[in-house]
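Usage

Read records sequentially. Each one opens with the input sequence:
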Amino acid sequence: MVLLAQGNIEGQDGNTTTVDFNGDGIPDYLSGERDGRFSGLRNPQNL
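and closes with the structure output:
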């Protein structure tokens, strides 16, 4: 497991999944919030 952020980055009732934003084969983080917003973070291994 890789630490993506030091604090809580998810809002209330978020639905989380992984997605490969840049096609490098390393999963990144994506969360859809109940208010329609999305939160996403690239995995620090691919920065």
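Summary fields computed downstream for this record:
- The CA atoms of residues 2 and 9 lie 15 Å apart.
- The beta strands are 15-19, 28-32, 38-41.
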